[in-house]
């Protein structure tokens, strides 16, 4: 055989690709816990789980990316061996449309489904913006009734409360794309093509960011953005811009007042009137079920940028203030959104299949819970059984086994056991509640030392009198036979 | 605006890409339940969760694909905008090596971690072979002690029992790559290059498939495979093949007998003797913790094809028989495997970082549990509240709300309510335990009809006397005020 050792190869770089990251320990379990809570509510509402593959054909995904304004919008795509193009899914809605079209004969109608998983965006990464992130969606496919939209808004409120957002700290805002369409029909008649509609949509979607005057400028002559660059406007007349702005500002003191304002805005447009009536029904259904306007409210300023929405659109916003990276207070903002999209399945089948659904921004919601201190506590580490005498590993394994059998999370120190300090430092790093130590003297006497590491840390941190120290010893010698009971008691004291 | 309607575009095909599939309902929850049980055991043993991104740089992934024999082995890869190559991970071990190299200063040593998630293989898909599947791994990085290997074997046994594989229905078989290496040193001396070693490894890994004579032929002159094609052999002498076969067959009546046989096989090889001694320690540790050879056994026929293993290798096999697709009984076979790989992190850092770990084939294990009837029961559908009078949707929503508030999974029928037969058919398709019906007469009388759909199906299927039918009515009229209590009672009866 020829020698295989040749020139030393370059070492690979140990790094994630740009825009990707790793999640460790409690970051993983907190998200899993939250997703379990959310899907529990979805389940309670009769939604069934669906897990589609991460990879779809590019033709099935279509061109429904939400961020058409960004230069790097897109998917991660490649060619299969048979030359066909595949891509990572960019959301959970496009795969649902494909799944429903593919399996519709075997699925109930309507089909309520939920889905959880990562999605991928081929965008320029930025601070806090990753190219892989989680979504957690619920959709109802196959029914035109706005009862389905109302149900999802109510479910969204329940989800937020279930994960720990208090009533009063969130609001689900509802609007209807038909109202905007009716208004545009009134303004432009049949000359309003898709391009103009999309332009108006994207512009009014910036209302939260650029404010009333910003939207007015962008609808009309254009404006300078923060960087000083000039952004072309849509060139609408000042009257046309006024009408659109009056729509955005049509929210009244009550849902009834808002509905009345909207009726005025849409005038004689049939589609507009339909939209207003749908909003009225949603508000009535929500209120009848106990979701008053403090939780679900009609708000015409909600637009949702996605072009594919055809009816009601909704958004869950967290209304409490957080401090941003520059120390300024600001509202937390949107954590979930969705709406009705009646044409996504039709792409495949040619038949109209009405659908509505919501997507929760899992990472943003987690960040919100952290800001409120509502995430589950830092996961407790395992009890660490140290190795005082390296010839007696079997004895220490025995202790670990007893603890585990009793339901106590426990592990043997498997590093180099040359000194105890290193082992205790490891136990601290593992967030261990208790360390177990047994040297030759203890063995001979049938004893074991157990060390309360949480208390040890507190004692070291606080100024304590000698009496307190003695009353609460961080380390104690116990009978070997009492190991499990005493460790358990120590953990309970530490968690009390 | 120009007209946008032009020639009707071709409709996209509603299909997953070749080799991918969707998972529905109980398929999703069963897997989630099983993974929760497995990671619960991992947690109990002190392992911490890690979730790395699905996408890695190609240079970080390296060339460690397990299936070097297959023509289409490989990863799904593409170029980023900056020309660098990215790919979907093909397992959870390569990402762990990258993560440990990248974050080693912040991680405890040793680092016990578990990971769960899909991996992707760019292979030719086949029946039952998909290009995306789940793995669930546990690894200990940063310690050379075989206590770490023994711990993972014990944990594997605990995992199998926790998910529902009975003791006696599985065996964890352990071998050591060093024994084989020592034997090859003896046989070939320094002339045994990587190529020959890998060839022997891949050949003996086929032992389960082609049997003793098959391996002997492949080590020597070659053989015809099932399709009649001639497979070149490695060209070893018959004596050399004998020695290797004697190694594969060295398993004795007890672990002690196997150890003694292996000592003979490795002769004077130092590395071989190390390997045998490690196996002896693993067997001793396992037995001391109560894992006798009925659960963890030394078995030299376990090889594990992966070239990167450097020490102990282990495999969990299910020993009960199933009936294969041709109706023949066969053993279920391997559901998990792993071993020690001391060089994977070194690729990045240049420093030796010993590591060992196991990967569970989640989908195979699920299939095994299904074959044994040990999966959780088919998920119960929601109570379906039907719509008899479409003007009273709010009333029906009220009923759904009451049921949900009481913890009962419930939904409103949202399809076209034109006839009750259609609604009850939907409820059946949803696997609903109970349907709720309220027409005008019931409303006037303050009553509601509830229908036991499970019982109704049984009554329809069985031949029953009229008396039985009357004694167990599948439908009953109740007071509207008792809705929640009566529905609950009906579900309990149905589940009893």
TrEMBL record, chains A, B:
Pfam family, one: HGTP_anticodon
An example Gene Ontology CC term for this record: cytoplasm
Gene Ontology biological process terms in this record: histidyl-tRNA aminoacylation
Top-level division of the source organism's lineage: Bacteria
Catalyses which reaction(s): tRNA(His) + L-histidine + ATP = L-histidyl-tRNA(His) + AMP + diphosphate + H(+)
GO molecular function: ATP binding; histidine-tRNA ligase activity
Enzyme class name: ligase
The Aminoacyl-transfer RNA synthetases class-II family profile domain, residue ranges: 1-382
Presence of keyword Ligase: yes
Residues that bind L-histidine: 91-93, 121, 135, 139, 304, 308-309
Compartments (UniProt record): Cytoplasm
Enzyme Commission number, as recorded: 6.1.1.21
Key words of the record: Aminoacyl-tRNA synthetase, ATP-binding, Cytoplasm, Ligase, Nucleotide-binding, Protein biosynthesis
Transmembrane segment boundaries: none
HAMAP family noted in UniProt: His_tRNA_synth
PANTHER family: HISTIDINE--TRNA LIGASE, HISTIDYL-TRNA SYNTHETASE
Family of the protein in this entry: Belongs to the class-II aminoacyl-tRNA synthetase family.
Quaternary state and interactors: Homodimer.
Entry protein name: Histidine--tRNA ligase
Species this protein is from: Pontivivens ytuae
């Amino acid at each position: 055989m020829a020698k295989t050792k040749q020139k030393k190869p370059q070492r690979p770089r140990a790094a994630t690709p740009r825009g990707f990251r790793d999640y460790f320990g409690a970051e993983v379990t907190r998200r899993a816990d939250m997703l379990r809570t959310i899907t529990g509510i979805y389940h309670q509402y009769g939604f069934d789980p669906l897990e589609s593959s991460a990879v779809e054909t590019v033709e099935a995904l279509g061109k429904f990316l939400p961020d058409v304004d960004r230069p790097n919008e897109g998917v991660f795509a490649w060619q299969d061996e048979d030359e066909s193009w595949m891509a990572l899914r960019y959301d959970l809605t496009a795969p649902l449309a494909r799944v429903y079209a593919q399996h519709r004969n075997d699925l109930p109608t309507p089909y309520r489904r939920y889905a959880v998983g990562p999605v991928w965006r081929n965008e320029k990464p930025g601070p806090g913006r990753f190219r892989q992130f989680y979504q957690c969606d619920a959709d109802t496919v196959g029914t035109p009734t706005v009862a389905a939209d109302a149900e999802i808004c109510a479910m969204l409120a329940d989800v937020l409360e279930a994960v720990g957002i208090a009533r009063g700290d969130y609001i689900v805002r509802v609007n209807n794309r038909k109202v905007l369409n009716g208004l545009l029909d009134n303004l432009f008649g049949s000359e309003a093509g898709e391009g103009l509609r999309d332009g108006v949509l994207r512009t009014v979607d910036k209302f939260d960011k650029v404010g009333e005057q910003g939207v007015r400028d962008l609808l009309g002559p254009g404006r300078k953005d923060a960087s000083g660059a000039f952004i072309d406007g849509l060139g609408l007349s000042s009257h046309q811009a006024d009408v659109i702005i009056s729509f955005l500002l049509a929210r009244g003191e009550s849902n009834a007042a808002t509905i009345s304002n909207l009726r005025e805005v849409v005038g004689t447009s049939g589609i507009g009137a339909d939209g207003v009536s749908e909003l009225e029904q949603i508000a009535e259904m929500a209120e009848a079920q106990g979701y008053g306007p403090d939780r679900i409210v009609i708000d015409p300023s909600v637009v949702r940028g996605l072009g594919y929405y055809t009816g009601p659109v909704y958004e869950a916003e967290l209304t409490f203030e957080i401090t941003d990276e520059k120390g300024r207070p600001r509202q937390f903002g949107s954590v979930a959104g969705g709406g009705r999209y009646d044409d996504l399945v039709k792409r495949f089948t040619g038949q109209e299949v009405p659908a509505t659904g919501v997507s929760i921004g899992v990472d943003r919601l987690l960040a919100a819970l952290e800001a409120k201190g509502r995430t589950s506590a830092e996961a407790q580490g395992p009890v660490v059984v140290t190795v005082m005498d390296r010839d007696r590993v079997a004895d220490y394994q025995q202790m670990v086994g007893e603890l585990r059998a009793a339901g106590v999370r426990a592990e043997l120190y498997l590093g180099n056991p040359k000194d105890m300090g290193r082992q205790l430092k490891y136990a601290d790093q593992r967030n261990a509640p208790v360390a177990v130590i047994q040297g030759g003297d203890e063995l001979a006497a049938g004893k074991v030392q157990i060390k309360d590491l949480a208390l040890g840390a507190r004692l070291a941190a606080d100024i304590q009198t000698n009496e307190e120290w003695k009353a609460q010893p961080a380390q104690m010698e116990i009978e070997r036979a009492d190991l499990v009971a005493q460790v358990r008691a120590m953990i309970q004291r530490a968690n009390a």
